[in-house]
Specification:
The chain is an alpha/beta fold. Helices cover 29% and strands 22% of the residues. Strands 5-4-1-6-10-7-11 form a 7-stranded mixed beta sheet. Strands 2-3 form a two-stranded antiparallel sheet. It has a two-stranded antiparallel ribbon with strand order 8-9. Helix 8 (186-193) crosses helix 9 (210-216). The longest helix has 13 residues, at 117-129.
């Protein structure tokens, strides 16, 4: 992957709008990504891992108490998600910043602080080398995390992502997890977003549906499997925050 490819043809979209209800207590009512581990906000670790991308090419989707994020991290591009209507909706609110951009976007999460820069770069490398339209980062983990499962065909090709709550007993046995981190060809993603629906129990728009939609439109979908183990953890509870802090201390 050439350096000029990294700097000129990539934008990142970081989802950071969540309130983090299960993390709220008498001690803190900060947005989830602003809760601290080892003295730094969770989002700090993510942005540090993305430092190979220019700041103004990193789009941070904010919502709850957005000013606490904007005032802490200057130089980035911000868009606001007024209503929490799912991960797909979070990407939709960034549409104005993505229209007319013909490169790729790296989609990741502000509450996943343990994923390293090398992992993001490997995902991008896989995407470019295989000439994909979308590449999913997948892994396995011994932790009990409610991640979607990757369904492949008999040749090992991507079929779709199935959310854990929708899994059949056989699908629950699948150990390959969808981390939620993707690389997308931007124009093709924007077309897929037009077909993204919210016909589910939550009434939300899920970005996990986008790869299958892109495939149905003739797109090439690839999978980048990395043996990340517990590094794929996203922080949703106090126990997970403690776990992440301990993992970061060991580095």
């Amino acid at each position: 992957m050439k350096k000029d490819t990294v700097t000129s043809n990539i934008k990142a979209v970081v989802l950071a709008a969540g309130k983090g209800t299960r993390l709220h207590s008498d001690k803190s009512d900060l947005p989830k990504v602003m809760r601290e581990a080892c003295g730094k906000p969770l989002l700090w670790y993510v942005l540090n891992a993305l430092s190979f991308i220019e700041k103004d090419d990193i789009i941070i989707v904010v919502g709850y108490k957005k000013d606490s994020i904007i005032n802490r991290f200057d130089g980035y591009t911000y868009v606001e998600q007024d209503k929490q209507l799912g991960t797909g909706h979070a990407v939709m609110v960034a549409r104005d910043e993505l229209e007319g951009f013909n490169g790729v976007i790296l989609l990741c999460y502000g509450d996943m602080p343990v994923i390293k820069q090398d992992v993001y770069k490997e995902l991008l490398k896989s995407h470019f080398e295989n000439n994909n339209d979308c590449t999913l980062l997948t892994s396995t983990s011994d932790l009990d995390m409610s991640f979607g499962r990757i369904v492949r065909d008999e040749d090992g090709n991507f079929v779709h992502v199935v959310e854990e709550k929708d899994c059949t007993p056989d699908e629950l046995k699948i150990t390959e997890l969808n981390t939620g981190v993707y690389v997308f060809d931007t124009p093709k993603l924007l077309k897929a977003l037009e077909k993204l629906g919210n016909n589910n129990s939550q009434g939300e728009y899920y970005i996990t549906d986008a790869p299958a939609i892109m495939k149905s439109l003739g797109g090439k979908i690839g999978i980048c499997f990395e043996n990340l183990g517990n590094d794929i953890i996203g922080v949703n509870t106090e126990d997970q925050l403690i776990m992440v802090e301990n993992m970061l201390k060991e580095e």
